[in-house]
Specification:
Layout: H1 2-19, H2 26-32, H3 36-47, H4 52-64, H5 72-81
Helix pairs in contact: 2-3, 3-4, 4-5
Length: 82
Amino acid sequence: MLRFLCLIVILVITCSASAQQQPVSPLEQLLLNKKYKEFKREATQATSHGNAEAFFLLGKSYHLGLGVEADEDKALSFYKQA
């Protein structure tokens, strides 16, 4: 139940940020353009440097099944690291 609530909170934050039309980072643009292999390579490299956005976007990709099989446990792990 707690995991579900955490995911809901994260989605609400994500949706509200998207609604404000904030600039999209190059990493997020790869995800939006469905360039999943390139996104995963770049995001994984960025997480090795502690990039919070990369952790968050990897969580989003696993949560929504973007370029990977949806996996709630992996998504939650990446969200926590973000």
